[in-house]
Amino acid sequence: MPSRTLPTIHTAARVLSPLVRPSRSPRRSTPSTLRAVAAATIAAVLLSLSAVDGTAAIAAPVGVQPVTPATPGAVVGWGDNGYGQTSVPAGLTGVTAIAAGVLHSLALKADGTVVSWGDNRCPQTDVPAGLSGVIAIAAGTYHSLALKTDGTVVAWGYNVLGNTDVPAGLTGVTAIAAGNSHSLAIGQLAPTFTADAPSSSVEAGASFST
Fold first, then answer.
1. 135 φ, ψ to 5°?
2. Which terminus of the chain has fewer CB atoms gathered within 10 Å of its CB, N or C?
């Protein structure tokens, strides 16, 4: 196949190349826009032909810049990097959401998993093993939160003030937020029962903090 395809590529180049060369006669000059279109057409034809039979791709004509597709879901970090908080892990792609703490960073991937990097002294970047089905994330100063598809919340990191102590029975959560040493969620608490008091519950849509 390569021996038969290469002449075809060369033929296409000979036929289309005159379109990109400016004419010597002012009356027959091709407008710059048409030359650019013709050049792009040549590049597309040559690359298409080479892709069919596996032959090496041929460089685009002079004046045509090859376009490199952007990596979907890539993360870019900048600024203070004293604890590696802007050093995005190599190969991290497919990210749909991000969050930044003081010295750590979080990324939510399309597959529902979470990636974290940066300072881990608290340890705010130790994503719980097996954590999946995540649809939202939040980063506090030294702690992290994840909201799962089942409406529950997972928290990890600094907890001296109880900021990762998710209230028992908290369900139906639709949004989360993390502050300096506290956390918030919009959801509902399951009814609680005690020996000395009747059951109590909180209406759906109420907010809770830890």
1. -120, -10
2. N
